[in-house]
Amino acid sequence: MYRFKFKNTNIRYFILIICFLIFIYIYFILLLNTNIIFNIIDRMNHKYELDTNYVYKDFINLVKINDYKKISEIKFVNKEIIYENEDKNIVIAPIVYIYNTHDTEKYYLPFISDYSITPSVKTASLILKDYLNDYGIESVIQTKSINNYLKKNNLDYKGCYEASRHYMLSEMKKYNFKILLDIHRDSVKRKYTLYEKDDKRYAKIMFVLTTKHKNYKKNEKFANYLNNYFNSKYKGLSRGIMKRKDVIFNQDLSNNAILIELGGIDNTIEEINNTLKVLSIALKDYIKENNL
């Protein structure tokens, strides 16, 4: 009798082990299919980056109209969708330069991880570019990797602004940019970055202004305009203007340069999109009023 119980126990252990192994196998298959592993790797070493030489045009359009159900219909080629200007015969000189000094900053991803898209400040830049394009305002997005520049020049994380400055100066040789926008994502919690109005959610925005260079007053005028615009249309959507005197943030390169903290780590791409729509209108009005 004791011998029979011993064998029966072994069988049960064996079955449990087999079930456990099957569970692990299925679990990792699901992970691979949803690219969660890639997202984990991305958070660890930032090697899996969005290639912004290509724009997720279909994805951006769906985000803009909040039609998330159709995201699964996007056709991917090597995880990229090529963006092309619809009217190739018209060439307008870009006046807005959009860049991300901290280009690996990510947002919360509740639903689009299944489609190999991790929303980030790069995604925000692409959406903003698309909104500006709707108003006939051409812009250029900085697409080169900040991390690659740091590695090539043996710089630590503090060298990010040197890297973005290097890329920016290269583009400024080709174009006469009137506005420089450095889009970041704040690290504060959702309760500080969520704004709601008329049953619609937005990611709060904050403008960061340096006072370290002698011409900062001109940038302050630009920051005040944007901040006042948000306060007049959506009181509370802007977290205000933060002044810094320790870092220049490359704002010495233009009279209309600003660093924007767009939302926080817990904001969704829908909330980011809603705020970007407001920002694009504010920029449109500013450009028109100042004849840029």
Question: Which percent bin holds the helix content?
Answer: 40-55%
Q: What's the story with the biggest beta sheet?
A: 6 strands, mixed
What is the terminal separation in angstroms? Answer: 93 Å
CATH architecture: 3-Layer(aba) Sandwich
A few lines on this structure:
The chain has 292 residues and is an alpha/beta fold. It has helices at residues 2-34, 36-45, 57-64, 121-134, 146-152, 160-172, 190-193, 216-233, 269-289; strands spanning 96-99, 139-141, 179-186, 194-197, 200-203, 205-210, 238-244, 257-264.
How does this model look, in words?
With 292 residues, the chain is an alpha/beta fold. The chain has one domain (55-289): Zn-dependent exopeptidases (Aminopeptidase, 3-Layer(aba) Sandwich). 44% of the residues lie in helices and 15% in strands. The protein has helices at 2-34, 36-45, 57-64, 121-134, 146-152, 160-172, 190-193, 216-233, 269-289, and strands at residues 96-99, 139-141, 179-186, 194-197, 200-203, 205-210, 238-244, 257-264. The strands form two sheets. The chain has a six-stranded mixed β-sheet. Strands 4-5 form a two-stranded antiparallel sheet. The chain is globular. The termini are far apart. The model is unreliable at 1-6, 31-55 and 71-90 (pLDDT under 50).
